[in-house]
Amino acid sequence: MNVRQSFPDRPAPAPARALRQSMAWIHAWLGLLAGWILFAMFLTGTASYFRPEITQWMQPELRSASVPAEQAAQAAIGHLQATTPGDQQWFIYLPDDRTAVTRVFARAKPNPEKPPARRPEMKLDPATGQPLEARDTRGGEHFYRFHFQLQLPHPWGRWLAGVCAIFMLTAIISGVITHKRIFVDFFTLRWSKGQRSWLDAHNASAVLALPFHAMITYTGLITLVAMYMPWPVKANFDKPDAFTTAAYGAPAEAKASGNPAPLLPVTPMIEAAAREWNGDRPRTIVIRNPNDAAATVTLLRATAGRLNARPDSITFSGVTGKELSRSPSPGPAIATAGVMLGLHLGHFAGPALRWVYFFMGLTGAAMVGTGLVLWVVKRRKPNAAPFFGLKLVERLNIGAIACLPTGMAAYLLANRLIPADLPGRAELEVKAMFWTWFGLAILSLLRPARRAWIETLGLAAIAFAALPVVNALTTDRGLIGSLRAGDGLFAGFDLAMLAIAALCGFAALKASAKPKPPKQKAAPSHRPSASVSKPAKVRENADAL
Amino acid sequence: MKQDRQSRRTAAWPDAARMTARAVTALFGGYASASALASLLARLLPGPPAEASAWGMILSFLIFACLALWAFHERRLILVAGVLWGSALLAGGAVLLLGTRA
């Protein structure tokens, strides 16, 4: 479909057809312009449903031990009291059944003469509070951050991700309008029929998970709504802080009094909060002005198992143990936004639902990927040299769809291959992903497009299949040992890598299969448009895409 | 048909310019209009201001998506530009005149 022919100068057809036609046109262009970034966002975002598990896999030195929240909190406070008792604020992130360590971050008192050096976050043994040594890595956090920051400087990555998300939303709406036979095509997947198969695959992956795709796109925009759409807040509030206070409660911001006072144990506070929270424990503890008469202890409720991802909070006096304040119970709109955030993050999901999220996310990547391929297949004329735009899109498709998985595998491989004590290794792991991804995309230019598809997909299969092998050779937590020890996380991770390798291998195999000539047995209206009269062609465009 | 194609070739640049103007209007005009309409909604909805602001924020992306799609559906560019930029100015002006609530 040529832009100029089909868009501004088209004849005026019946309204319903005109709507489908303009929607088909905009759907193809929105999907194309944002498709490559959306594919990467879908793939890394899908991986992020296992963010804590990836982090655990990337620090094989650490083994999780389940410790009650009270014990982990008290152990962490014991360590902080021994090292930096005079700080302004302590942040304690407690472990849960998906994380192995307690993380603490301590902020020193502001010193006007000499700003203190930025202190790194520390990992502590949940049971003893002793610092843990493990290889430096960004873990699953890297995929998660890339998913909405795209490795670009703040705030540009987030804005670009937001533009792609609104493109996705409009592409979904226009795709649904275009696609009038939504329930028929739900059951239609014709393999090995060239363009028709790509369209079927695009429709099947889109329709199958349409509610998920629409939900994940809209809620994705909501996760950063304060940045993308601050204006409705500005319309009502002079200061954005006033909105935050009205919606989520006032943050504990008391100044230190200067009078020392012992900090009470947190266990009774955790128990008091648990009574308010149907037995839920806190996930995060913020202690302000420890060992001061104005000390406060804020507990933030764990959101696992709760749909609303905005945690409730209760603030206690650290000296008297009295409750000082708590977050207000949210109104319908604030609760809706919190639930949307929760639906996107999926923290509430248990293991089974998390896998559903994972597969739905993969259908999203499949939908975007097949849509991108379809754009090329649809415009390729048999026996004609492809025009420049077509070649460009095909090459970008190879670079985005076939080369990114290998880049992600390289990130994980680098974790095992870079020496555990090398300085700056965390950045090297990240670099390994991007050098592999973009390097491979450039190398693939040397090969004819069809060979490039086959070879890059095959390489992805090899890279993922290599992960369990390299893991077994470089750690004592290989697949067989993990299975014997009943280590579900490590065994599951290795098996998942093998499954992904099989998927990439299958894709490479499919790419190498000779496509059947589309003329045979194809329905007349779907024949390549070489000699089709204009009205029939218009109809095909309106129906097909 | 033949004449059509000829006029199109000579008018290639204005077509590209019109398409650029349409895309810019859809993206930026659509955002401006959605922001202004969502803000006006937030300002006018009864009830607690924080709730009203949250409804405005939640609905803003749906408004934006519908406006942007309409900008590509409607053939008259002047109408598209008028509605999008005009509603942004009117609704935005109304929000400024009304002032904040808290």
Q: How are the elements arranged and paired?
A:
The complex is a heterodimer of chains A (545) and B (102).
Chain A: H1 3-6, H2 15-47, H3 51-57, H4 69-83, E1 89-93, E2 102-107, E3 122-124, H5 140-149, H6 156-178, H7 182-186, H8 195-208, H9 210-223, H10 225-228, H11 231-236, H12 240-248, H13 267-276, E4 282-288, E5 296-301, E6 313-317, E7 323-326, H14 332-345, H15 351-379, H16 388-402, H17 404-417, H18 425-443, H19 449-474, H20 479-485, H21 488-512, H22 534-544
Antiparallel strand pairs in A: 1-2, 1-4, 2-3, 4-5, 5-6, 6-7
Helix pairs in contact in A: 2-5, 2-6, 2-15, 2-16, 2-22, 3-5, 6-9, 8-15, 9-14, 15-16, 16-18, 16-19, 17-18, 17-19, 19-21, 20-21
Chain B: H1 2-10, H2 12-44, H3 49-73, H4 77-98
Helix pairs in contact in B: 2-3, 2-4, 3-4
What features would you describe in this structure?
The complex is a heterodimer of chains A (545) and B (102). With 545 residues, chain A is α+β, with helices and mostly antiparallel strands. Chain A is 58% helix and 7% strand. Chain A has a seven-stranded antiparallel β-sheet with strand order 3-2-1-4-5-6-7. In chain A, a hairpin with an 8-residue loop joins strand 1 (89-93) and strand 2 (102-107). Chain A starts with a helix and ends with a helix. Chain B has 102 residues and is mainly alpha-helical. Chain B is 87% helix and 0% strand. Chain B starts with a helix and ends with a helix. Residues 1-10 of chain B have low confidence and may be disordered. At the A-B interface, helix 1, helix 2, helix 6, helix 9 and helix 10 of A face helix 2 and helix 3 of B.
